[in-house]
UniProtKB/TrEMBL annotation:
Pathway connected to this protein: Amino-acid biosynthesis; L-arginine biosynthesis
Domain spans labelled Aspartate/ornithine carbamoyltransferase carbamoyl-P binding: 5-159
Function: Catalyzes the transfer of the carbamoyl group from carbamoyl phosphate to the delta-amino group of N(2)-succinyl-L-ornithine to produce N(2)-succinyl-L-citrulline. Is essential for arginine biosynthesis.
Gene symbol of the encoding locus: argF'
Protein name according to UniProt: N-succinylornithine carbamoyltransferase
């Protein structure tokens, strides 16, 4: 693997899932990262991604440097040919080239602005790092995807599934802020590659990018979609059609105990952080149906799989 920008960078998903679960269960500490440095740049807040990726890197023997790029770094210019006479002090061309001398792998988190659809879809920050860095780049959640989360989610479903082909529902839930489509996009991508019965539930106006959704069935009636579900992934996202807008805060979509009753005693997933009693009720999050803590625990092993593959590829070169 040369970069981990999107889920499509993993060719054999089953193998990656199996490797992640093996790392978890065997507690194997490889030394493939000895003498290598991971640099992580955060343009947005993080708890899990930051700490689980740091832990994964250290388990592989790597050194880790972390920077809150939005607060501590120079404001970066990403536009080619920009006349930099305003507030941006440094161009990505220099920043990425310089970082590539300090780091063997660069990992970046950069959320979408949710104002300009075309601009967000370009995924300019991630693409620019990939273009100008001379070392592998890892996506820690970008404008369009969160592939480390998706690999984690696939691992979590695999380790918990009781049937060969479980039913998985991705359901929208209300939220007071406009959130990215990155997490649902990557979850849809990974479910489309797994042997599961997968459907999406969201209110009208919240259908995801048709290029991501493809032929996945979408229900505008949540209760109908939840029938017989073995896994329910709850997540808010802002509208794609009416880009970045909040069209509904309908609390009848909040994931409640009554909603669990409609399922096949489903395991309830969320990438976290979760707004209690807005997105998912306390009664669900504090019940045995919730697997959100186990899911977050798996982030370390998903990151380990990805970093290990990038390091092994560096060794071959
Ligand atoms: N990395 C996991 C989720 C990150 C982000 N959530 C948030 O920004 C929630 C913040 C809040 O609840 O105010 C998202 O949905 O993409
Ligand atoms: N799930 C996730 O990416 O969490 P953080 O935003 O805390 O990293």
């Amino acid at each position: 693997m040369k970069n981990y920008i999107s889920l499509s960078d993993i060719e054999n998903l089953d193998l990656a899932i199996a490797e992640g679960l093996q790392l978890k269960n065997n507690n194997t500490v490889a030394n493939v990262g000895k003498g290598k440095t991971l640099g992580m740049l955060f343009f947005n807040p993080s708890l899990r991604t930051r700490l689980s990726t740091e832990k994964a890197a250290k388990l592989l023997g790597m050194e880790v440097m972390v920077m809150n790029a939005d607060k501590d770094g120079w404001a970066l210019e990403f536009e080619d040919g920009a006349i930099m006479n305003s507030n941006k002090a440094e161009h990505i061309k220099e920043a990425a080239a310089v970082l590539s001398q300090y780091c063997d792998i660069i990992a970046v988190r950069a959320f979408p602005g949710l104002e300009d659809k075309a601009k967000d879809e370009e995924d300019l920050v991630m693409k620019s790092f990939k273009k100008y860095a001379t070392v592998p780049v890892v996506n820690l959640e970008s404008a369009t995807g969160h592939p480390l989360q998706a690999l984690t989610d696939a691992m979590t479903i695999t380790e918990l599934q009781k049937t060969k082909k479980p039913k998985v529902v991705l359901t929208w839930a209300p939220h007071p802020r406009a959130l990215p489509q990155s997490v649902p996009n990557s979850f849809v991508e990974v479910m489309q590659r797994m042997d599961v019965e997968f459907v999406i539930a969201n209110p009208p106006g919240y259908d995801l990018n048709p290029q991501v959704k493809k032929d996945t069935k979408v229900f505008h009636n949540q209760d109908e979609a939840l029938k017989d579900a073995d896994f329910v992934y709850v997540k808010n996202w802002s509208s794609y059609e009416n880009y970045g807008k909040i069209l509904s805060e309908d609390s009848s979509w909040t994931f409640s105990e009554q909603k669990v009753q409609l399922t096949n005693d489903a395991k309830v997933m969320h990438c976290l952080p979760v707004r209690r009693n807005v997105v998912i009720d306390d009664a669900v999050l504090d019940s045995p149906n919730s697997v959100v803590i186990q899911q977050a625990g798996n982030r370390t092993y998903a990151a380990q799989v990805v970093l290990k593959r990038l390091l092994e590829n560096l060794e071959i070169e």
